[in-house]
Amino acid sequence: MLVVLLGLAVVGLSTAVAYTTAGWPKAVPISTGLALCVVFASVVGVLHRAAWLAFLAVVPALFVLVGSVQFAPESVLEVRGVRQQVAIVNVEVVGKRHAFILRGEDGPLDEPLIYRGSNPGYQLGDTLVVLTDPDGVVPLQDADKVDSRGMLVALALGAAGWTVITLLAGWRGHVRRRKGRFDTLII
């Protein structure tokens, strides 16, 4: 049960770090969340003497990491964000980074819509609704792509996955002790 609580603590800590560092470079919550996920996987592997369980814990760790890093800024935008209908008036492309210059009803926006990738799906003249943070902490995003509930589901799936893995590891240890098999470390 302590390992289950550790997993839940990792989910909570990772999300708390993402909230407190909203507006900072994403490398901060990503590296902190990654370190916490590695700690959890290591504890599972060492405590239950099964490297395969630690490896299996990586899949829910991805859900925890993505969910916690994305949940914070998206929920900030949903809670205090201001909706604005804008038109794309220009685009600046550097490599795979697209900076779309936007014009709202009150004039041009100070902040561009940033897309990193090869196919942004936006074109000059398109109109869309964006969410802007009045405090300027979180960068603006397309309102249709903000889904904090989806990130919360990812967090819940990651926590549930870790709980199942931990309970599986505990049951495996119970059965092995009952059969008197203490010698093997890996399988």
C-alpha end-to-end distance? 22 Å
**SSE succession:** HHHHEEEEEEH
- Hey, roughly how much beta strand do the residues contain? 15-25%
Q: Which structural class fits the helix and strand makeup?
A: alpha+beta
**Total number of β-strand segments?**
6
Uncertain residue segments: none
Helix content: 40-55%
- What is the typical, i.e. mean, pLDDT? 89
The count of helical stretches stands at 5
Biggest sheet statistics? 6 strands, antiparallel
**What number of structural domains do the residues give?**
2
From the structure provided, what is the oligomeric state, counting identical versus distinct chains? Answer: single chain
Shape verdict: elongated
Rg estimate, integer Å? 21 Å
Keywords: Membrane, Transmembrane, Transmembrane helix
Transmembrane segments: 28-47, 52-72, 150-171
Protein name: DUF3592 domain-containing protein
Walk me through the structure:
This protein has 187 residues and is α+β, with helices and mostly antiparallel strands. The chain contains 5 helices and 6 strands. The protein folds into 2 domains: 2-78 and 147-178, no CATH class; 82-132, OB fold (Dihydrolipoamide Acetyltransferase, E2P). It has helices at 2-20, 27-47, 51-56, 58-80, 148-178; strands at 82-94, 97-104, 107-108, 113-116, 127-132, 141-142. Strands 1, 2, 3, 4, 5 and 6 form a 6-stranded antiparallel β-sheet that branches. Helix 1 runs parallel beside helix 4 and helix 4 (58-80) runs antiparallel to helix 5. The protein is elongated, with a radius of gyration of 21 Å. The mean pLDDT is 89.
